[in-house]
Amino acid sequence: MTNFATFSDACYGFAFTPFGKCGMAKSEQGIFSLTFPSDEESVRVELQRKFPNVKFYRNDDEMEKMVYFIFQKNEYPALALYGTNFQLSVWEALQKIPFGSTVSYEDVAKSMGFPKAVRAVAHAVACNPVAFLVPCHRVVRKNGGLGGFRWGMERKISMLKWEKENLHL
DNA sequence: ATAAAGGCCACCC
DNA sequence: GGGTGGCCTTTAT
Questions:
Q1: How far apart are CA A107 and CA A94, in angstroms?
Q2: In angstroms, how far is C6 C1' from A117 CA?
C-alpha cells in the first residue's frame, strides 16, 4: 500500500443489487469496498484484516440507500480507493471506460503508458476492491474471450448485459 | 533477495 | 487447436 486510510470509523453492511447481495463499506471519505461475498462473516473479517485500525459499524440501511442511488438513479457516490500507485492508476483508467462498452487488458495498459504491462494490469484489475463502481467487468480479452471475474463469470456477463439494456440511464 | 504466479498477448507450429 | 516466451507487479518464501 502506498496510500493509507486516514479515517478511524466506517460503516459496512449488506444490500441487494441487480447482481445479487453485495457487501459494502464506506467512510466519510467514500465507498472503499463493494464485494459479492458468499457469507456475511467473511466480509467483516476481510475488512478488519485490510483495515486493522478502523472501527466498523454495521448499517444496512445506509448501504441500501447507496445501492438505490447507484442502480436506480444512476448517481455515483464518492469512492475512496487504497492501493499501490500502480493499482490506483489502473483503477483510475477503468473508471474512464464508458458505461456499456468494453476494452481489452492491452488497451488499459496502453492508456497508462505501459503498453507491455498487460499481465500486471490484469493482476491489478483482479484486485479491484469496489465491484461495478470501478468497472473491472468492462475489461475483456482481446481474442474475444471474456477473461475472468473475481466474483463469478456469470456475474460479469449479467453486468455487461444489464448495462446494454440500461444505456438510457 | 529471489521465485512464482497472475482475470494477458503475440507468435509460432 | 496447442505450446512458448515475454511483459511488470505482487506475494510468498
A1: 10
A2: 10
Fold of the CATH domain A85-165:
Arc Repressor Mutant, subunit A (1.10.10)
Q: Structural domain boundaries of chain A?
A: 9-71, 85-165
Q: What is the pTM of this model?
A: 0.94
Instruction: Give the full edge-to-edge strand order of the sheet including A9-17.
Output: A30-35, A20-27, A9-17, A55-58
Q: What is the pLDDT of residues A29-56, one digit of tens each?
A: 999 999 999 899 999 999 998 998 899 9
CA count, 13 A, side-chain hemisphere, A54: 24
Would you call A136 a catalytic residue per the annotation?
Answer: yes
Given the candidates 3.40.50.720, 3.30.160.70, 3.40.50.620, 3.40.50.1110, the CATH classification of the domain at A9-71 is: 3.30.160.70
Instruction: Please state whether strand B lies within 7 Å of residue A139 at its CB atom.
Output: yes
Decide: A161 and A150 in contact? Cβ < 8 Å.
no
Average pLDDT for A95-101: 96
Name residue, grid cell 459494502.
Answer: A24
Q: Which residue has the cell 471519505?
A: A29
